[in-house]
Amino acid sequence: MLLGLVLLMCAPACGPAREVLLLTAQPSRPKEGSSMTLICETQATSQKTDAQLEFCFFKDGRALGQGWSSSPKLLLPTVWREDSGSYWCEEKTTALRATRSPRIQIQVQDNDASVVPGRGCGLPPEGIPVWNVSLEVQPPGGQVQKGKKLVLICLATQGTGDITFSWYKGTLGLNLETKTQSSLAAKFEILAVTDSDTEKYYCTADNGYGPSISELVSVTVRSPVSRPVLTVGEPGAQVFPGDVVELRCEAQSGSAPILYRFYHEDVTLGSSSAPSGGGASFNLSLTAEHSGNYSCEADNGLGPQHSEAVPLTVTGRADLGVIPHPRHLLSQNQPSCTAAHVQTSPLSAYGGQEGTSHLGNP
Ligand SMILES: *[C@@H]1O[C@H](CO)[C@@H](O)[C@H](O)[C@H]1NC(C)=O
Ligand SMILES: *[C@@H]1O[C@H](CO)[C@@H](O)[C@H](O)[C@H]1NC(C)=O
Ligand SMILES: *[C@@H]1O[C@H](CO)[C@@H](O)[C@H](O)[C@H]1NC(C)=O
């Protein structure tokens, strides 16, 4: 589709627009299931012009194929009996003066399917062509939660008469919807998005002068995190002051990035983010005060989820110093987190605090 719009090909038959235009079909009596090429030819007698010509083919009043194109030929890969009818072509220069060929009757000799209906390229009405077409996405930013509604609004700044809007998915342009309205904006909705709706989208608008295309707009479908599971060190292993335990929190599902926060009772130990999903861990140097319940929270902006509490008992060994070895000091992505051993009440944690904003509270 994109390709078709930028196709620049001027066939030998290009001539001044005022000449007589003739449509021919090859073969003129095609067989069902075979291909047919329509050729829009100017019987030019005067010199060639540099003007860029555009052509459009019609069958029984409906435009065929992609609408206006710089190619004076249109290949219909397979024709069927239903494709029999009255055909004509139109030619226009950039000056928007259009010429129409006389109609020709094509009878397809002797199945089902019909010619692809075109996206409007009627003889241009007196008016203003559509311009500055843009695609607006709701929710803004194109981040939409799985199962929620996505609205794609196709807007033109100006353009008179009925405007045919089309929405496309992916750079290859899967046509999602086409509708004609006498307004400068039209909307297309996907009521409940799924993962496969994460794509780039664009739209076109055409009021008879050929389609104008919008920019590509990215849409990302995001899903909320599931309830995370916290593991604290080796389950069941005895731990002593001075040991380092790894707290690991992981939500099985949820779109990245996910921010994890670790809690001891109601106190935040620190946070760690998983930029591309998965879990995150946090190392904690234990003191005797670190017994108690631990929990974690996963948050990707679509509603935080809290894990179940996991109890930890630090077996007291009064004879051992509780000042951890520097290598036990936590450094998650930020090796410079080397605060001195400060005894905070009721616990002392060495958290790899990332500069991440706090997304929620327990
Ligand atoms: C083109 O359309 C966009 C979106 O509607 C609008 O913000 C912008 O002002 C328009 N540009 C011009 C030149 O009108
Ligand atoms: C925690 O410690 C373990 C083993 O000592 C190490 O493999 C892991 O990378 C550390 N994790 C963090 C977040 O520093
Ligand atoms: C940890 O949680 C359990 C169950 O929620 C509770 O019975 C227990 O008292 C808690 N322990 C501490 C030290 O708060």
UniProtKB/TrEMBL annotation:
| Swiss-Prot/TrEMBL keywords | Cell membrane, Disulfide bond, Glycoprotein, Immunoglobulin domain, Membrane, Repeat, Signal
Coding gene? FCRL1
One annotated Gene Ontology cellular component of this protein: external side of plasma membrane
Q: Which PANTHER family match?
A: FC RECEPTOR-LIKE PROTEIN 4, IMMUNOGLOBULIN FC RECEPTOR
Its primary localisation, in coarse terms, equals membrane
Q: PROSITE patterns, per this entry?
A: IG_LIKE
The name under which this protein is listed is: Fc receptor-like protein 1 isoform X9
**Care to name a GO molecular-function term for this sequence?**
transmembrane signaling receptor activity
